[in-house]
Write a structure and sequence with these properties.
alpha+beta, BirA Bifunctional Protein, domain 2, about 25% strand, 17 strands, five-stranded mixed β-sheet
């Protein structure tokens, strides 16, 4: 019986995995250059970690289950809540700010399509403990530099959910979140009908005017006219910092990020080509979550990169390893294995024949897998402490002392 992989999941063959590891390495090295250190959290958590803020309706969108003890658990649909839970449990007395990064798989029960899977990978960072605009500035610049180091062509949009929070400060929490979700889905017609049905018609025009503001720093002046009692200095300082650091961006006050825990600056990055409608590759912002998990009110900011979408459009390629096949004539297989081990210990990528094939077939296999060299262990040469070294790309070969093999490869 042939068993297919579960819907919404993928198998990755060696070429794809090598490419993904190159992308992952660049992400890690860039984050570490800013002083971020890697963390990890459990693949599954208690269900209420995710429902405590997003509500019970999120259960329909995630992999939730009961374990054999009857406990309600869920495969993690994202990493921010688990990281904040970890912070409250393990890190609350550590010196601040804390700089963490992670690379892990997540799970969501949704309709699979291009760029959206039920199992997917996220690379993200969290900067915990600072409420300065400098924290948002660092995180945004880090996200941009990761994408630049991957040679991605993207646009960066920045908003501030505090503007809508201020505008809707007199609206109760349930209706506020309903309004925010409609804005996140760009359902303007539905928003107008909802506000009318709730006798909140007076909010429609200022909301529509505010979320329609998109462009450079000039739109801040327009926003000041809509919400004159809001303090825009934080956003203005952030914009100055981005310009000083030569980060290209657009302001877009319609960004609310779809997650209820964001409180201030939010941002999103979109690939300019290659992904169609599912082209968002990065999202983040500032938030406060720790108080929900038994901690104090700690400011945080972070982002997550959609690793799978980035892997689809990233042109990075794994460096082709100059692999070596150590072949042998009949009866010389153990001597060949010993030479193979010596080369591996020096850091070389070495293939050994384990099929007991003829020398001709061994060399044919070397060409098939793209090996750069073949070291041929033949009885006559081996008696004199020598082996045959063949350059499979150039078709040339020489006889070398076994002791000189490493010296020869080290020249490459």
């Amino acid at each position: 019986m042939k068993i297919e992989r579960p819907r919404g999941t993928r198998d990755f063959l060696p070429d794809e995995m090598e490419k993904r590891r190159v992308i992952e390495r660049i992400m890690r090295e860039t984050a570490e250059s800013y002083g971020y250190r890697e963390i990890n959290t459990p693949t599954f958590e208690h269900l209420n970690l995710f429902t405590i803020k997003s509500g019970e309706e999120i259960v329909q969108e995630i992999y939730a289950f009961k374990d054999k003890g009857g406990r309600d658990l869920a495969l993690r649909p994202e990493l921010t809540a688990p990281v904040m839970r970890m912070f409250v449990n393990e890190c609350s007395v550590m010196p601040r700010p804390l700089r963490f990064y992670y690379f892990s798989n997540c799970f969501r029960y949704e309709n699979p399509q291009k760029g959206r899977y039920r199992e997917f990978w996220q690379f993200g960072v969290e900067l915990i403990g600072s409420d300065s605009y400098l924290a948002d500035l660092e995180v945004i610049v880090l996200a941009c530099n990761i994408m630049k180091n991957l040679n991605l062509n993207f646009t960066l949009n920045i908003g501030h959910v505090g503007l809508l929070r201020k505008l809707l400060q007199d609206v109760d929490e349930a209706r506020y979140y309903k309004i925010m979700r409609m804005i996140d889905k760009n359902d303007i017609e539905g928003l107008e009908k909802y506000l009318s049905s709730e006798r909140l018609e007076g909010y429609f025009d200022p909301i529509k005017d505010l979320i329609g503001l998109k462009g450079g720093t000039e739109v801040i002046n327009s926003a000041k006219e809509i919400i004159p009692d809001f303090d825009f200095s934080y956003l203005e300082n952030l914009c100055k910092g981005l310009e000083k650091l030569e980060i290209e961006y657009n302001l877009d006050f319609s960004i609310v990020r779809g997650l209820d825990y964001y409180t201030g600056v939010v941002f999103e990055a979109f690939a300019k080509k290659g992904l169609g409608a599912q082209n968002q590759i990065c999202g983040g912002g500032s938030y406060r979550l720790t108080h929900l998990f038994g901690g104090g009110d700690v400011p945080s900011t972070g982002f997550a990169l959609g690793f799978d979408r980035i892997a689809e459009i990233c042109k990075m390629k794994a460096d082709a390893a100059k692999s070596i096949l150590v072949a042998y004539t009949a009866g010389m297989e153990l001597e060949a294995l010993k030479i193979s081990e010596r080369l591996r210990k020096s850091g070389k990528t070495v293939l050994s024949d384990v099929m007991e094939r003829s020398l001709k077939k061994q060399l044919s296999f070397a060409n098939t897998v793209g090996a750069k060299y073949a070291v041929i262990v033949a009885e006559n040469e081996f008696k004199d402490g020598k082996v045959i070294l063949r350059d499979l790309e150039e078709g040339e070969q020489i006889i070398v002392n076994i002791g000189d093999l490493l010296k020869y490869f080290d020249k490459e």
